[in-house]
Amino acid sequence: MSSTTTSEHGLRRVIKAVSAYVPQVPKPKKKISLTEKFVWTGIALFAYLIMGQIPLYGVTEAPKFDFLQFARVIFAAQQGTLMELGIGPIVTAGLLMQLLKGSDLIKLDFKNPDDRSLFTSATKIVTIIVISAEGGLYGASVYGPLTADEAPFAIYVVIAQLIGSSIIVMLMDEMVQKGWGVGSGLSLFIMAGIAQTILWSVFSVVPGNDGPVGILPFVISHATDGRADDAIFRTGQLPSLFGLGLTVIVILILVYVEGIHVDVPIVSTKYRGFTAVYPIKLLYTSVIPVILSSALLANAVFMGQMLWANYNPENKSPIFNLIVQFDPSSQGGGQRSPTGGILYYMTSPRSLDHVVQDPVRAAVYVIFLTAIVTVFSRLWVELGGLSAKNAAKNLLDADVQVPGFRRAEGSVEILLNRYIPSLTIISGITLGLLSSLSDILNVFGSGTGLLLMVNIMVSYYQTLVKEQVDMHMPGLAAMLGRKP
User: Fold this and answer.
1) Could you tell me if residue 92 is inside a domain?
2) Which of 181, 266, 267, 425 meets the CB 3.0–4.6 Å disulfide criterion with 41?
3) Is the same domain home to 163 and 227?
């Protein structure tokens, strides 16, 4: 026991010593007005958008394939730019630390400010380690062969750009979260990336196979020729009026579902007569299970593509053909989609044309994605600290209790167990169906992208309401436990 305690104290000292050399964004010394927060948030967003347009220096040609295409919506990444990795390393490190925290592998008292500060420092250190590892491995494997032969050190310049830009993104997120901005920087970047994709689908004038890519310029150009009805359905996964209508419908459904919740009445033990409700949302696990499922599929396709390229490039191996097949004649840049094998049925058809051609693939994809999202929902509740036991503990720690129940964790846990397990399964099924059906119907921004965007927008709305309460009703904010 003493050796464990000694090692824990040693680890604490190491984290504190290392954190002194880790770049930090200081908290504002005075209260920042909402207008100033919007300005700093805008600066961070503008910097992210600019970095997403600056190409990597030292790269002589673009990669033949985009290995991260399936995950770029989640990671707010742009291929071939400083935002090549996007927020991927930061999200990976954050999820890792959250899993360690939720599974109680990290023994910290989060009511203790010193322990909270220690966890924050450890998260930042782990984030920098993940950034360095991912930047080095990805840069060397993807861009190593694409640098000039006469410049042997060019690959190190590319890796330095990947690592440096990711650290800048980490610091911008920290700046926003520490009170200089509104909400979360990572959420802001994800939402901006998805919004860019949707706006591109609506307004782009870049020529496609049958006219402008954007649906609005396409309708205008074809309306002058009396062929506006061509915009209802388009081939080649191009934006159509049908897709636009579905996108609007899915957004409205998501906004409605986000507002559905079960209210558990609570009363304050600190302020007599203060009553409120503890809302348990229908989408209890939020969009984390969808992110995990999409990341799993992205990694599966990535590994399948690497195996195919090295061991079965001509689709002649019966064993590897069972796993995945790709089109050998597709040598252009961009995303490779499986054309056969198990991974073929694990990925979305992404257009009505493909659904009609192979309805079995569409059905299997919907069932598979819904199943793994539901499984991840169940796991995330246990590992992410969202179980009924943890929720009961959080309620009691907030100095509230449920009328009619003893002020004890076991009593409140029994009540919450009536709702949380069922809502977890319902949440997983709902998210899986919405995401998979949106994907196969080719909505703008993808099904996962719309889920993320709506969730982030609702979160930002709630954050702005809290900011207004803090500004105009500081007494109520103090009663709710928020610092002025």
Assistant:
1) yes
2) 181
3) no
Residue 363 belongs to a domain: yes
Beta bridge partners of 147: 59
Smallest CA-to-CA distance from 300 within 464, 102, 71 is with 71
**Over the stretch 358-401, which tens digit does the pLDDT of each residue have?**
899 999 999 999 999 999 898 888 877 788 888 888 888 777 78
312 in a domain, yes or no?
no
The dihedrals phi and psi of 283, each to the nearest 5 degrees, come to -85, 70
The structure tokens 């920098």 sit at 128
Q: Write 336-341 long-range contacts (CB < 8 A, 24+).
A: 336/65, 336/305, 338/301, 338/304, 340/315, 341/304
Residue with tokens 């009170």: 179
Q: Identify the domain containing residue 433 by its residue range.
A: 196-295+357-479
Least confident of 151-155, 226-230, 282-286: 226-230
Burial (CB count <10 Å: 0-12, 13-18, 19+), residue 230:
middle
324 within a domain of the structure (yes/no): no
Pair (128, 257) in one structural domain: no
Q: Go through 33-64 and write b for each residue having 16 or more CB atoms within 10 A of its CB, e for each that does not.
A: eeeebeebbeebbeebeebbeeebebbeeebe
For 148, phi and psi rounded to 5 degrees?
A: -65, 135
